[in-house]
Give the backbone structure.
Amino acid sequence: MNKVICNSLRSYVAFTKFQHKSCQVPNFLTVSKMSYVNHQKCYTKDAPEKKLFTPGPLSTSPTVRQAAFTEYGSRDVAFIAAIKTLRSKLVEIAEVSKDEFTCVPIQGSGTFAVEAVFQTAVPRQGGKVLILQNGAYGKRLAKICDVMSVPYQLESFSEDSKVDVNRVADILSKDKSFTMTSIVHCETSSGVINPVEDVGKVVKQIIPDCIFFVDAMSSFGAVPLDMLNGNIDFLVSSANKCLQGIPGFSYAIAKKSVLMNCNGNSRSLSLDLFDQYDNLEKTNQFRFTPPTHTMLAFLQAVKEFEEEGGVSGRGDRYKKNRNILREGMKDFGFEEFLDSSHEGYIITSYKYPQDLNWNFTTFYSKLNDRGYVIYPGKVLNADCFRIGSIGHLYPEDMKGLLSAIKQVLQEMNIKLR
């Protein structure tokens, strides 16, 4: 059993024994203790870990999880130094100048960072956003603007195609009132990688002052993206994606000259990136309670990312994972949602088989029982499921998944060929 959990358990049991000697232990405490002990059985070293073939949260290394066991106070000198290092490292990973760009971490999942950019970068008066969407996560951008009552135009593209740069240019040329253009780099509902750099060039060419905002949630750290070449002003991602940390915070890589013009825009206190940045610059501290354990684990994740070779090294492993998956699923007879013109290697959507015995819930449950977790589909015009290639997964894990899929197909009496 994990040493930290064992120590916690001993302390808990010792405490309840002491309480029992000195006074009558309430029934609810006895029940709680029993539940606590039973719960710990799930965490013995002999219990098999499940492999997560999902878009997030992802499988993480044991050393990343171990790093989360360290406890610091939010004002601890060592933790303050950790925040400073984390911010610096993320700017380095983005391959931009620390003089021109900064990293602003914020509590919460990736969607918190997405909304924080809209809150911060869209002015309260006169703001208008062009949202380019070809999937569920692009539509989420529109939902955020709806809730904020921010004027926007939603330009939709087919879920199985990339955003059309020429169409974007035509829209911007006809309406130069947009103050922001937003796009998702890797549309995780399908696996499409959008031509972000080409879109960014068009945006700044037609409307130089239009802010270009990229949601790189599931691509940052594994899919090359030149922020300077793409004229990107804001880019967001999350700790628990390609950098393989644990969930708990997200972050924005922001162009300082643009961020400095955003003071007073935010309609939210907690999601104000300018205010967060200002306080971080002055004190190296969060304004509100930071996710200490998650951030310490993330520093370990970044160390492992660098040891693997950075963006290229991690991307190469994910590509190998994807190639093994592609060939194995093709041999089984599964059909991909996207055609061969798409080069993404983050996640793959597969169409449901046309077999009378097919049932996704059964398929999912049988794989889950074997320790392999896949994901339901999220495209709207086809019944699909998704399998991710990212996280702490290696070629042998992909082969293990394929072996499990073969067994499950046989159990379900599904023949795809």
User: Anything to note?
Assistant: Residues 62-306 form a domain with the Aspartate Aminotransferase; domain 2 fold (CATH 3.40.640.10). Confidence is low (pLDDT under 50) at residues 1-39.
